[in-house]
């Protein structure tokens, strides 16, 4: 009985060891992709990068709206705030963000023969936006009080910019950017994300996006529109 019992224990241990080895072998393969996944997806995809930059644009549009409101109500308007805001549009939106679209997105859509009419309109609007920004910068950088004509000119340039760029950014976010993923191979898509990040660092330094957001926040605080709670309705109809 002792011999059989000892034999049974050894057989049980051998079977248990075999089951453990098989179990570990089975777990080894599924665990490896989890490690690989930790290395991938750490960057920002091209559409996500461009869409968060649209967030900066939309906050500038709010600054423009507040500036227009002050012109209409004859309230004090610090022109340096308008100049700073339009400067961000010039440097960050037009010379950086839109340049990415024109260099990397628009040519691929034209090559694929997809959304070409939309791309043509967006390009035309980029050019129109640059002309409006030039007008806004010119009017807001003047020293001393603005003449009635200059105030009207400044107001009109900001109003036209807002009217064009609200639908412009929305159409890109909901139509152009989602389609972009479909026409670009996955590996190229990932490489473009890295290219965008490198260009941002080169143009604005490390964490350049957040530095630009910080500049926008400073303007919002000067104009008293930084507190998000201020936009909440006091009562609901």
Number of domains: 2
Might you state the CATH topology name of the largest domain? Answer: Four Helix Bundle (Hemerythrin (Met), subunit A)
- Kindly provide the radius of gyration, computed on alpha-carbon positions and rounded to a whole number of angstroms: 28 Å
Query: Which CATH class of the largest domain applies here?
Result: Mainly Alpha
Q: Unreliable stretches, pLDDT < 50, 5 or more residues?
A: 1-42
Helix tally equals: 7
CATH homolog superfamily of the largest domain: nmb1532 protein domain like
The helix fraction, in percent, is over 70%
Mean pLDDT: 86
The geometry reads as globular
Strand content of the residues, in percent?
under 5%
Helix and strand content put the structural class at mainly alpha
Q: Per CATH, which architecture of the largest domain?
A: Up-down Bundle
């Amino acid at each position: 009985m002792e011999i059989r019992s000892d034999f049974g224990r050894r057989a049980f241990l051998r079977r248990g060891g075999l089951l453990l080895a098989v179990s570990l072998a089975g777990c080894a393969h599924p665990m490896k992709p989890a490690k690989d996944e930790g290395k991938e997806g750490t960057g920002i995809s091209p559409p996500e990068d461009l869409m968060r930059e649209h967030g900066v644009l939309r906050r500038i549009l709010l600054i423009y709206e507040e500036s227009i409101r002050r012109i209409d109500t004859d309230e004090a308007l610090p022109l340096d705030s308008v100049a700073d805001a339009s400067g961000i549009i010039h440097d960050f939106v037009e010379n950086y963000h839109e340049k990415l679209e024109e260099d990397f997105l628009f040519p691929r859509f034209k090559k694929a023969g997809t959304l070409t009419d939309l791309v043509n309109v967006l390009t035309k609007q980029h050019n129109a936006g640059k002309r409006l920004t030039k007008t806004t910068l010119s009017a807001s950088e003047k020293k001393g009080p603005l003449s009635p004509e200059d105030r009207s000119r400044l107001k009109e340039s900001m109003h036209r910019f807002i009217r064009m760029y609200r639908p412009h950014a929305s159409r890109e976010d909901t139509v152009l950017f989602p389609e972009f993923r479909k026409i670009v191979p996955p590996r190229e898509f990932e490489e473009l994300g890295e290219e965008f990040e490198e260009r941002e660092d080169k143009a604005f330094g490390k964490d350049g996006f957040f530095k630009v957001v910080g500049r926008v926040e400073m303007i919002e605080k000067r104009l008293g529109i930084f507190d998000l709670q201020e936009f909440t309705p006091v009562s609901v109809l």
